[in-house]
Design brief:
about 75% helix; mainly alpha; flat
């Protein structure tokens, strides 16, 4: 008895090479688009809002904010130098201790300038009639 197993086997669709390519192209076309943080910021208008908030500050307050940023950067630099000085074996112990003390005093003076400048910015903003806490926080951040 001869049984033909091909009759009972499942059938498979045979597609041409061109059909397979067009399906692959459609799949490629359907891939989701991912935006970077920067692009999302632009699309949401966040970037424009930030520029408008900065523009809302009077020029003298903007200058104070810039000075505040510069001071903070200078403090970071000086703290790095202090750490390098502490790790250094280049100086004698007494000299090293004196240099560290001087560097610490310098950093503390700059930090007190940051505090004073922050108070001055707050007062200048009050005088300018800017009471929005968001603008204040952004200016001081």
């Amino acid at each position: 008895m001869n049984v033909n197993f091909l009759i009972h086997s499942p059938t498979q669709l045979v597609t041409s090479h061109k059909e397979q390519e067009t399906k692959a192209e459609k799949v490629e076309e359907l891939k989701p688009l991912r935006l970077s943080e920067e692009d999302l910021s632009k699309l949401s208008g966040e970037e424009v809002r930030e520029e408008q908030e900065e523009a809302a500050l009077p020029p003298h307050i903007q200058q104070m904010v810039e000075k505040l940023k510069e001071l903070r950067e200078k403090i970071k630099e000086e703290q790095k130098l202090l750490e390098e000085l502490k790790a250094s074996d280049q100086y004698a112990d007494e000299m090293k201790a004196e240099l560290i003390t001087q560097k610490l005093e310098y950093i503390l003076r700059m930090q007190s300038q940051v505090i004073e400048l922050t108070k001055n910015i707050q007062e200048a903003m009050k005088e300018a009639g800017i009471s929005d806490p968001g603008v204040l926080l952004k200016a001081l951040a």
